[in-house]
Amino acid sequence: MIAAKIEEYAFGGLVASIGVFTLIDAGTIAARDDNAVGPRAFPYAVGILLVATGIAAIIATARGKLGQAEEGEDVDENVRTDWVTVGKLVAVLIAHLVLIDLIGWPVAAALLFFGAAWSLGAIWWKALPIAVVLALLVQVVFAYGLGLSLPAGIFEGVPFLDG
């Protein structure tokens, strides 16, 4: 019982600490205009929520409200890890990291989204158009909504993709 309380306090403290780190680090993000919602807004919101969640967990633990132990009722312990799928996901992520600077965010992200979906069993001809639309949407939101410039790569000069 005492070990469970210590773990709950540690969890709350860790979450709050990550929130404080996020808030401090968000202050170092360069912004074009201090009056507009920019690249600092989301990290500040996440940091505040993390600090509040960590404090709430610590208060709940102090009041005796401990988390329930996991019974694993929906987990089949006889199923082994699918290392092929894990390997595909790792390969897709590494390819994404390498390709961002070479071909730009939109293409690299589309390959990441498609590769992750395909690795997890999606039908390729359904996953591919969704991945392309999602990657382009993220590019446009970052460029115009947040004022951040993701590398356009081969789309350099395309007005709505070049932040």
UniProtKB/TrEMBL annotation:
Q: Which UniProt keywords apply?
A: Membrane, Transmembrane, Transmembrane helix
Boundaries of every DUF1468 domain copy: 11-151
- Report the InterPro entries cross-referenced here: DUF1468
According to the UniProt entry, the coiled-coil residues are none
Annotated membrane-spanning segments are: 9-30, 42-62, 83-100, 106-125, 132-155
Superkingdom of origin: Bacteria
Listed name of the protein: Putative tricarboxylic transport membrane protein
